[in-house]
Design brief:
By secondary structure, this protein is α/β, with parallel strands linked by helices. The chain contains 13 helices and ten strands. Strands 2-9-10-7-3-4 form a six-stranded mixed β-sheet, with helices on both faces. Strands 1-5-6-8 form a four-stranded mixed β-sheet. The N terminus is likely disordered. Bound molecules: zinc ion (2 copies). One zinc ion binds next to helix 9.
Length: about 375
Amino acid sequence: MALVYEKPAAQESASSSSALAAQIELNPPAQAGASGSTGAPEPGNARERRAPGIGPTLSGDAADEVKSQVFARLDPLDAAGFTRMGRPRPGEWLSSFRESPQPMELYRMQRPVRPTPERRTIVLQPLGEFTPGQRKVLESMREYAEVFFQLPARLERTMPFPRGDEALEEQLVRIVPVGQRHGSYDRQYRAETILDRMLKTHLPADAVVYLGITMEDLWASNLAYVFGLGSFKDRVGVYGLCRYYPEFWGRARGPGDELKGLHRSCKVLNHEAGHMFGLSHCVFFHCSMNGSNSLPETDAAPIHFCPVCQRKLAWNIGYDPLKRFDALEAFYRAQGLSEDADWMKARIGNWKNLLDKQAVVEEEE
Ligand SMILES: [Zn+2]
Ligand SMILES: [Zn+2]
C-alpha cells in the first residue's frame, strides 16, 4: 500500500525530522533541460532548506563586504582556474535564494562534523537494487570519496527497501500519477523516512558520515522530487542517482552517457558529503558547493572545490592538499575524465608555486 503522489502541501509537517535539521537538495522542475519527459512542469519547486542555526543571514551589502574580505586574503595562485560568482541569471539558484557567505572563521565557529579516531570512515550504503553496471559506479564513487576527502571509505552490502510493514511502506513509497512519470519510474521513495528508519537506525560505529545511495527516485516534504537529503547533525544523508541517466528520461543510453553519469554522481557525492562536513553553499566562486536549481546548472558547475571550500575541508580533515590533488588527478585520469585531470594538473602546478612563494616569504621574515 503506497501513498498517491499529491500536489504539494502548503506547509511541511512540523513533526518531520527534516524540518529540524535537514537540508533538502536541488529539485529542478521538469523542464530542466533533461529532455524526454512529458515536458509538463512538476508540482513542487526547487528548494533547499537550511537547517536552523547554521549561520547568520547577511543581506546584500554586508554579504558583499564579507566576500571582498575573503577575496582580498586569497593568493591569486590559489584562486587560479576558478571564476568568481557574478550576478545570477534568471532561473539560477542565486536568483531565487539569498545565500550568506560562510567564510572560514564562521565555518569553524559552527563546529562542523569532523573525523575522530573512532569515527573516520565515509560509509556508502547502497539502498534497493542496482544493475552490475550501476554497482561499478558505486565502486568508483567509493574510491572517489576516499580520494576527495582523504579518509577511508567503505561500500556496505546493499540494504533492501523494507517490505511487509504496511505502515512503514505507506510512509516510504508513493505512486507517481501516470501523466507525471518518467520512463519506467512509477514510484518515489520519501527521503526523510529513509533517513529516519533505514539510516539513523543503522549508523555504523566507525562512520564519520553515512551516505545512502539509491537508483530510485526520491521526494521530500512537499517537493516533487529531490536529488538528495542530508542531516547536518545526524551524519546521515541519502542521494538518488536515477535522474543522472537517460533511462530516467525515457531515452536510451548513448556514447558518453555513462561517463557523464559517473561525473554527476561524483559531483553530487562531494557536494552532499561537503554539506555533511558542515560546508554551506559556496557564493564565492563557481564551485562544486554552489547551490543549483536544475540539472543544467549542476552540469555547468565544476566538480572541484574552490580555494575557500578546499581550505575548510583541509582544516576539517587535516589532509595534505598536494597529496590530495595528486590523487584526484590520478582518479580523473583513470576514469577517463581527462578534462578534470588536466585541470587538476594545472592546479597542482599553481599550488607548488604557491608553496615555493610561501617558503620564500618565511625565509625573509
Ligand atoms: Zn547543496
Ligand atoms: Zn567554493
